[in-house]
Design goal:
The complex is a heterodimer. Helix content of chain A is about 35%, strand content about 20%. By secondary structure, chain A is α/β, with parallel strands linked by helices. The longest helix of chain A has 24 residues. Chain A has a single domain, classed as Glutaredoxin, CATH 3.40.30. A 7-stranded mixed β-sheet of chain A has the order 2-1-5-4-3-6-7. By secondary structure, chain B is an all-alpha fold. The radius of gyration of chain B is 31 Å and the shape is elongated. Chains A and B meet through α1 and α4 of A and α3, α4 and α5 of B.
Chain lengths: ~170, ~160
């Protein structure tokens, strides 16, 4: 009994260190989205490519799909761009863009220069849909499964590794 | 030398102070309110919500774009006459409980809320046990010494 009491503080300390260390390993930059297992939020915004076209939730109609939040001022988005172009080429998944707090002209010329992986882009000048989506840093990517339900969200540039780990599992 | 040092400190603090005052003025201009109550409520709310991007500061202490957008959104909600709990609901429905500096008491946060008190309790318990075992040790040796003394005295007799 006495021995147990003697080593108890050490055991508690070691457990505490292990627990805290495992928390340290967690990636705090990936906040869990509240929208997982929910429908895509309702919205009314214009299309980037044509300001006379009013888009709403029902225009995101081909599932499964990803909605990618991007902007010309976002450097990481440019790093991610080739991945999206490649995804469009090699996968059947539909890619919708959410152009976030951007300049319409700049955004259009970037797509013209670097290629356009998106079916269309929603033009969210004020970032209102982005707030409804809980966006806090571009790029962000939401996966909508074949039932139209949001299944995962990734903050930061997509890479083949992340795609395989976080997205492919929901595409069965 | 000392006075030079002092005057430098004074100058720096004056600059910081005036920048702070300016920020306050800018904030007043950016978010004008009709009543002082609304303004106080607005500032209190900005203090209570965490910036989702720069996670160790609240909305009022952050200048990141998303913090600015959320400030504008909260300003709009306060102007619309929304209650505090409605604004909290609006934010947590989008950004999760993470945005609250004071998270709700629920299974996923039990450890967070109870943990420190549990640790304190364990610590007190440990101190108590160690102290008691030491006391026991002392009394044991005292007893043995007494016994010896008694024995040697009785042998001498």
């Amino acid at each position: 009994m006495k021995k147990i009491i003697d080593i108890a503080p050490l055991v508690v300390f070691v457990l505490l260190v292990l627990a805290l260390f495992s928390f340290l390993q967690r990636d705090n930059n990936q906040l869990n989205s509240v929208l997982i297992d929910k429908n895509f939020p309702e919205f009314t915004l214009t299309q980037l490519e044509d300001e006379d076209i009013i888009l709403s939730r029902s225009d995101i109609s081909h599932f499964p799909a990803i909605v990618n939040v991007w902007a010309t001022w976002c450097i990481t988005c440019r790093v991610e761009h080739p991945f999206l172009l490649n995804l469009k080429k090699e996968s059947k998944i539909k890619i919708y863009g959410l152009n976030y707090k951007d300049d319409r002209q700049k955004a259009l010329s970037l797509l013209e220069r670097d290629g356009n992986p998106f079916e269309f882009s929603i033009y969210d000048k004020e970032g209102s849909l982005a707030i409804d989506l809980g966006v806090y840093g571009a790029p962000e990517t939401f996966l909508i499964n074949s039932d139209g339900i949001i299944k995962t969200r990734h903050v930061g540039a997509l890479t083949p590794e992340i795609w395989n780990k976080k997205f492919v599992i929901h595409l069965k | 030398m000392k006075s030079l040092f002092f005057s430098i400190i004074l100058a720096i603090s004056q600059v910081i102070w005036s920048v702070g005052i300016q920020n306050l003025d800018v904030q007043k201009e950016l978010y004008p309110f009709d009543t002082v109550e609304e303004e106080i409520r607005f500032n209190k709310l900005l203090d209570d919500y965490r910036c989702p991007k720069c996670q160790s500061s609240n909305l009022s202490g952050s200048n990141s774009p998303i913090a600015r957008d959320l400030k504008i959104e909260i300003y709009r909600l306060v102007k619309e006459g929304k209650k505090d709990y409605e604004i909290t609901e609006f934010l947590t429905q989008r950004y999760g409980d993470f945005i609250l500096y004071k998270p709700p008491f629920q299974p996923s946060t039990y450890l967070l809320w109870i943990g420190p008190f549990a640790l304190l309790l364990i610590a007190i318990l440990c101190v108590f046990l160690v102290k008691r075992s030491k006391q026991k040790k002392v009394s044991d040796t005292d007893l043995r010494a007494l016994k010896k003394k008694f024995q040697s005295e009785s042998e001498n007799r």
